[in-house]
Amino acid sequence: MRYAETGFQLEVDLSKGSIDIVETDQRETESLLGGIGINAKLLYDRVPPETDPWSPDNLLIFGNGLLNGTCVPGANRVSVDTIAPVNGLMGHSLMGGFFGPEMKLAGYDRIVIRGEAPDLVYLAIHNDKVEIRDAKHLRGRGMVDTQRLIKEELNDKGVWVAAIGPAGENKVIMASIDCGNSSAARTVGPVMGAKKLKAIAVRGTRDVYLAHPAEAWEMCSRLRKELDANPNVGDWMAVDEDDSFHHNNFSWGNARTRQKNYWSEGLEERWRNLKHDHMDRWTGCWNCPKSCHNLMQWPNRRKFSYKCYGKDTYHMAAFQELDFTYEILPIAMDLGFDSYSTPQVIAFALELLEAGILTEKDFPGMPSDVRQRFYYLLQKIAFRDGIGDVLAHGVSGAAAIIGNGAEEFDHNTVKKFEQLPVKLGKLNPAYFLMIATCEDMAITQIEGSFPQDPIKDPKLREEFIKNWISVPDKKFHEWFRQWEKRDQLPDQAMIEISDWNECMHYLDDSLGLCGFVSSFRGQFGGTTGYHVWNMPQIITHTLGIEFDKDKLWEVFQRNRTLVRALNNRLGLRRFMERPPEDHWAVRDEEYEQQLLTKYYDFKGWTFDGIPTKETLEKLDLGYVAEDLIKRDILTGDEVTALKDDKAKKEKE
Amino acid sequence: MESKRKKTKIIKDIKVDTKKCVGCRACEIACSAFHATPKYSSLNPARSRIMVVMDETRDIFVPIRAGEYTQAECNGRNRYVIDGKEYDECTFCPASCPSRGAFREPDSGLPLKCDMCENDPPVEVPMCVDACTFDALIYEEREEEVEEVKEKREDDMELAFKSLVKKHGLKKVKDTFARLSKG
Ligand code: SF4
Ligand code: SF4
Q1: Span A425-470, pLDDT tens digits
Q2: How far is CA B80 from the centre of its chain?
Q3: Would you say residue B2 has pLDDT above 90?
Q4: Which helix (H) or strand (E) holds B15?
Q5: Domains (ranges, CATH) in chain A?
Q6: What is the pLDDT of residue B167?
Q7: Which residue, A6, A98, A628, B45, has most beta carbons within 10 Å?
Q8: Of A290, A293, A505, which is best to mutate to test ligand 1, by the most ligand atoms within 8 angstroms of its C-beta?
């Protein structure tokens, strides 16, 4: 009998029309936990690097975090992973809400999709009854209708439907996969479209077992109450209407203009009313005592819900006010667009028009009003009409196609992926490392455990340290104590801060925990819900396999290294690890490169950012080392970065 | 024959505030875990005696507790309009009835009913109320005068068993008893 997990994964080949329920090996759970870890292993084992991400041989995997569907509060993230067409590297996106737990209740830890259906289909899962059904009648349908129609067709209101909209069907790079109030927004939607899979409908009525019932339940009930009472977890943007942080610090338009004094009390009051006059309620995710989604009703629109910084992206890209976001979001989301990258793509296109790189002829019939222009471009992109067909490649892809200087306007991507529009003054070394080396393509997927800024008042600082139980080692206390200026800490501290931040995200993404109650929420207030001290106990009591902090940390290192090796095999190298050149106004190339070398060395990677044979073997990834050697990516004799001659030269 | 006497009894009730429900399903999880054998050894909202009727596209979030089993579908098809929102005919109905899959053991199809988490020693508040951190479920106790009822006797049990067999067939009932007594 398996606890916490079901021990089965569903494997569907849409080309062959085959459906297999496959028992999995519990040793793999012990070494990789689940979510991103096991997904990365499947991608490594089954998708050779020469595979075209658009081809049927690519996989699209919905992998439950190990704890999803158990009594652990806030455990509901399913890792949706693939080889991403945007850049040919591993694409990783997280979906909260209810889809993952429902998969678990249906009996599956994971759904692995291969192949490409001859025409549009959807997958209907009710426990072990699994069908590939015709979805031609859903072609061109938006998210809301698709989910409703499938529920009606299956005559079951308890079904959860993860779907793509027209953007996904048309393989737009910025397409998302949505289910209820949640979405897997980054890089994965177009692959679902390429597979001609309109949706997956899941309904489960099976038991999920807990290994140590009394202990697991006691611990989870306590945690639920702690999370409920803890103001530092959940999404402050759901309740706090002071959003000066994003509006004064982030850049508007095509990540271009900062408006440092934008925010005012009057504005806050006006926007508070705007929100609450149009809000039905907050909604939550499976088994979480926080409620981060705002369910809205805007005039002449269907109900929609948004979360976090999704509240800002459209109006900031268009230099408008909040009402613009509220009016456009329900339409953009229904078309199946990710609200992080899409507004940037549109702002980029409008900048090119202004600069004369694109001309009026490229936008036939486009209204002059900026709001209407956004609607116009959403439609063009979703249905790949005219210039929309080009913009559907995302900022980097479109810039390469347009040429003629358009590349200069692609100034906010890393590894071809749109970043948060942050443009600052002085280099922040820890952030340099995280943005450069992050393979989840966004800083929010790596930062979060160590505070963003020092606390200057010694009394407040000590108070903070006293309550800061999540630190994996006392040395973080010391570094925090000596920290006065944001960019000034020893290199070793910057490296280990980045490492710990990353560790928490990898553990969350393997366990299914939401970053808002865990990895992302240590930085403000320091009292996040989950950390390396309570996670092992939680795993032990639910899974029934003994874990401690060291064993857990090693899983992080294994999963992190596996993702890195997978990406190295797909072509990731040191030269690609660069934050946008204008991310900070003041840069120091030499220092940055030395820091990067030290970071690689700390990670046990080569000068080129590839895990060495020794590093791989230490983490039971010998099979990866062998494969990388066979493919001439490693010789097997490499040393870690600092011992490399190139590093010595760097120093001179 | 005993004479009927008046006696005060504690009536337990759970008040639902649908405006506060966020749809997290913690109540369903807690209920099913509490009623698992052994306690908390598994969870499964399909076995829960509370069910959250949820439709985000219409802002409907209604937790309902399972009431009595009814053998026949009712013929009332009411539509409720509350605060401008129209609710399905069955949204507020607590019955385990043949017209829908709600409130039935998923493997046996046997009806489920809320028992206010009867337990020895008694729980402080029912599990769903304890799990709901949003105050959408509020536990209330009040005293009421009721006519004293005799304790259930063995032959009542037999009668109940027979009626279950009549409703569900011997195999289903036996399977369920077997499953329940396994723990
Ligand atoms: S913290 Fe918010 S986003 Fe995260 S699981 Fe809870 S309700 Fe969902
Ligand atoms: S626990 Fe409370 S808020 Fe959550 S679904 Fe149940 S009634 Fe609603």
Answers
A1: 999 999 999 999 998 888 899 999 999 999 999 999 999 999 999 9
A2: 22
A3: no
A4: strand B6-16
A5: 8-203 (3.60.9.10), 235-418 (1.10.569.10), 424-651 (1.10.599.10)
A6: 67
A7: A98
A8: A290
Domain hosting residue B86, numbered range: 4-181
How many Cα atoms sit within 13 Å of A630 on the Cβ side? Answer: 8
Q: Would you call A266 helix, strand, or coil by DSSP? A: helix
Q: Are A11 and A132 in contact (CB under 8 A)?
A: no
Q: Please list every residue in chain B whose beta carbon sits closer than 8 Å to the beta carbon of residue A146.
A: none
Kindly indicate the confidence band of residue B158, based on its pLDDT and cuts at 50, 70 and 90: low
| SS3 label, residue B154 | helix
- Nearest partner of A133 among A13, A17, A10, A21, judged by Cα: A17
First vs last C-alpha separation in chain A: 60
Query: Which chain A positions have a beta carbon within 8 Å of B89's beta carbon?
Result: none
pLDDT of residue B154: 55
CA distance A63 to A109: 6
Phi, psi of A291 (to 5 degrees): -135, 100
d(CA A331, CA A143): 10
The residue whose CA is least distant from atom 1 of ligand 2 is B132
pTM: 0.94
- Name the 3-class secondary structure at A532: coil
B141–chain A nearest CA distance, Å:
23
3-state SS, A246-259, equals HHHHEEECCCCEEC
Give the span between the Cα atoms of B50 and B70, in whole angstroms: 17
Tokens of A172: 């737009």
* Distance, CA of A622 to CA of A612 (rounded, Å): 11
8 A C-beta contact, residue B22 and residue A282 = yes
Q: What pairing do the DSSP bridges indicate for beta strands A110-114 and A8-13?
A: parallel
Spatial CA neighbour of A165 closest among A157, A156, A185, A153: A185
Number of domains into which chain B is organized: 1
Q: Which helix (H) or strand (E) element contains residue A395?
A: helix A394-402
Q: Please work out, in degrees rounded to the nearest 5, the angle formed at the alpha carbon of residue A21 by the alpha carbons of A16 and A23.
A: 135
CA distance B148 to A21: 55
- Residue A179 and residue A161 in contact, taking contact as beta carbons nearer than 8 Å: yes
| CA–CA gap between residue A600 and residue A640 (Å, rounded) | 7
Contact A103, A111 (CB under 8 A): yes
pLDDT in tens, A336-371: 999 999 999 999 999 999 999 999 999 999 999 999
Residue where the block lists tokens 């991403």: A84
Q: What is the CB < 6 Å shell around ligand 1?
A: A 74, 76, 96, 234-235, 284-285, 288, 290-292, 514, 516-517
Strand A257-258 to A129-134 pairing = unpaired
pLDDT digits (tens, 9 = 90+) for A607-651: 999 999 999 999 999 999 999 999 999 999 999 999 999 998 876
Assembly ipTM: 0.95
* CB A141, CB A192: distance < 8 Å: no
Q: Is B138 in the pocket of ligand 2 (CB under 6 A)?
A: no
Per CB-CB distance under 8 Å, the chain A contacts of B46 are 105, 204-206
Token representation of residue A567: 């990406």
Q: Does B123 touch chain A (CB under 8 A)?
A: no
Contact in structure between A493 and A479 (CB atoms under 8 Å): yes
Q: Name which residue sits closest to atom 6 of ligand 2, judged by CA.
A: B27
Interchain proximity A302–B57, CB inside 8 Å: yes
Q: Do B131 and A280 touch (CB under 8 A)?
A: no
Single out the residue of A652, A642, A547, A544 nearest to residue A597, CA to CA.
Answer: A642
Question: Apex CA A225: angle with CA A220 and CA A227, to 5°?
Answer: 90
How confident is the model at residue A426, as a pLDDT?
93
Q: Which residues of A294-328 are buried (b: 16+ CB within 10 A; e: fewer)?
A: bbbebeebbbbbbbbbbbbbbbbbbebebebbbbb
